[in-house]
Predict the structure.
Amino acid sequence: MQDFAERFHEALPEELAGETSWTTPSYPSRYTVGTTVSNWFYDNFALPGVGLETSYQGTPDRDYSLTDYHRIGGALATVLAELVQEPRAQGA
């Protein structure tokens, strides 16, 4: 997970990445296991999914726009595509 977080942070456009682009929440999960959109896609279409919680307000330096969220999603898709294309180590 740390590898993914670091890669995602590096893939974000510089102006959209805060000093801390990932944190472990200090509050309990808002989601019940099995009720996320990722679970729904898998249950209905047998497709894996990924969810990413992101700030509504952006970084301390700027508020995010719709275009910014598209750019964040593009960075996410790029990193995920790179990860699935990498050869897996034996026994991993």
Remarks:
- The mean pLDDT is 80.
